[in-house]
């Protein structure tokens, strides 16, 4: 039996405020073409169909179109909800969709009820385990403990019980949305540590022929029978080195797995570049990134004015800029109290401005504004002092400048 394993579509997601809807539409066109060209027997979608619980209308329409096209091809589709999806919203209409060959699994209590597919070698029981939030799924699955490993283990126990009651020739596939030990994460995945330790051992899937995983955005193999397809598009610059793909999985008569990666269309490459503004504008080696979506890290000691607009003259698709000035460490260790000694409030405030702006000190207008603000604070403080009973709380200036002796000694 030939299966196409995909996940983490995140329909409706943008990339640094750039809509990816057209790119997601291109991916779905590619997916459907692959189903036809490779004579796929079933499509597996391992969660995170949408990017958020209440997706935008355009994303819902795109999903609806994809379902209609899959149904027209008469290719069964098994799909689970992920941690980005609203399981209840995604599952609406699942009973009707089943008659069209689209099988949505969003209820934890249905973990042990498979979609049974058949080929010339017999049956393939396909179990859908939606994302199992430990606090919510523990009672439904009767897990003895909390945490991801416990609830996923309880779900897999239901799978094994059902599978044991079937003929011995029945092959088995599980879809799951989880973080499995050995997987490599990226910045664009939502943290699922709430409810216990997030990672689960791959051994939890023992006893089934293939585990089609979702959640991690990099395509990767945990072992020969446990794989992540990854997301079809890059959703953060941490994925700039990913090769986006889907798995084409063949199950033979004995349940042995042969898997092949098929590349997904890339709307625009991603690139991370680093250097001073002058280096980024002049470095010949960066020519290959001029049409990419770019994240530039600018290392000038003083933040350049209008850096984004300037860099856009060379990188018209720059979407992110990071300032990381390269400052030499003088090795001088001076205590905070010693640095303040003998300096006025005005000087301290001006030093702070220069510090947070990495070398660009306050100009004349800013120094004047700081002086006015400090003078206003002193006037207000004097008025408070005139109404304060003797022995009361000391004025703010005294509290600001008092330094405990042990702090001075500690340095």
Task: Give the total of domains.
Answer: 3
Overall mean pLDDT stands at 88
CATH superfamily membership of the largest domain:
Metallo-dependent phosphatases
Strand count, sense and closure of the main sheet?
6 strands, mixed
The chain-level structural class is alpha/beta
Q: What is the CATH architecture term of the largest domain? A: 4-Layer Sandwich
* Beta strand count: 19
CATH third-tier fold name of the largest domain: Purple Acid Phosphatase, chain A, domain 2
Q: List the uncertain runs.
A: 397-411
- The CA-CA distance between the termini, in Å, is 71 Å
Please tally the helical runs, counting DSSP H or I stretches of 4 or more residues.
13
The percent range for helix content is 25-40%
CATH first level of the largest domain: Alpha Beta
Strand order of the largest sheet: 6-5-4-1-15-16
What is the CA-atom radius of gyration, in angstroms?
Answer: 29 Å
GO molecular function, one term: exonuclease activity
InterPro entries: Calcineurin-like_PHP (IPR004843), DNA_Repair-Maintenance_Comp (IPR050535), Metallo-depent_PP-like (IPR029052), Mre11_N (IPR041796), SbcD (IPR004593), SbcD_C (IPR026843)
Family: Belongs to the SbcD family.
Subunit structure: Heterodimer of SbcC and SbcD.
